[in-house]
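Issue 218. Parser rejects a valid record. Input:
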Amino acid sequence: MFEGLSDKLERSFKMLKGQGHISEINVAETLKEVRKALLDADVSFKIAKEFTTTVKEKALGQKILTAVSPGQLMVKIVHDELTQLMGGEQEEININANPAIILIAGLQGSGKTTFSAKLANYLKAKKGKKVLLVAGDVYRPAAIDQLKVLGEQVGVEVFTEDGSKDPVGIAQKAIAQAKQTGIHIVIIDTAGRLAVDEMMMNEIAAIKKRVDPHEILFVVDSMTGQDAVNTAKAFNDRLDFDGVVLTKLDGDTRGGAALSIRSVVDKPIKFVGIGEKMDALDVFYPKRMADRILGMGDIVSLVERAQEQFDADDARNLQRKLAKNEFNFNDFLKQIQQIKKMGNIKDLAGMIPGMGKALKDTDIDDDAFKGIEAIIHSMTPAERENPKLMNGSRRKRIADGSGTSIVEVNRLVKQFDETAKMMKMMTGGGGKKMMRMMNQMKKR
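Output the parser choked on:
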């Protein structure tokens, strides 16, 4: 995500390295490269020019502190302006009504149906809401079947009406059922449509008029770049939607849609899709995205993901075991499984400052833990409970049973010992300080 843009921006800032001050000349050279980087990321020329003009005005108006280099100051100004370009502050989805009605609109193939299920899962799991999904795409039978399958995956009921070709009627009946059964939120998935298809645009406008949604979300494939921005404007002119959802942001995207869409439609990006799994949905935070674009990582999001997966009781139990030197391979396996639930490994690494750049050309397989899991599963219950039993003959048997080598088994045992030592340090006084610091960061 944004790898190309990040690299080019970093190169442009290097032009100021070694400079004693910011001048009209060196700013012009740097911002020429910044503008080129934005254009290459599929940001429109108008927005790229306005952005660099604003940065230039702010840079030339700043006094350089002795503790801050011109390059560092430029990074800060660009960071602040990128944050503003993408909306400034994170904006919440409106779910205050009962039931709250959310209408999903977008182009064909933009990922509306998958997003609808992801949103239902997010609202159920993280907001504690009872959700009803509505299959309003009456033109594509596969969409109804897809929503049923996804609804079952996330444990959310799906409202359908076999044979009906009236999406307005389906939506109205679903809302009536929601009111009777105590549903908190109704999410209406609609058919994909083209902005140039007048009949289909009239239909989505009619659905809006008749069901009076509290939130309209426009779903757009971020890989379509500047075309996504132009489409968003056409839809916004007809629907006046409340927010944008960027899907496939984990793909080979240049990032132009994320950077431009707020300026064009004056509507916030509320969610981003970052993978195919049902929990691969992130709330959009402009500042955090600016951090990641400029290679600063995103520790706050990483902490939040960790807090979602790590149970407080489990953490206390683990701390007790570490204090007594009772940490074993069962605990180690459990930690690995919780890390896997947090998401794509390379994406997680990219949230650590500096790691995204270091791993840029490294292919990290999501199955990277498979060998470790196979080795642990090949141990006897006694060996998992008591790591001190791991002598040479046992290691050979485990290697044969897991289809690995003794070298790999030895490596795992060493990793286990190092992990146990590190975790014991973290759960001591230093660890408590670290947890307090992480919680403070989250509140910012």
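Fixed in the parser; the record now loads. Residues 3-85 form a domain with the Four Helix Bundle (Hemerythrin (Met), subunit A) fold (CATH 1.20.120.140).
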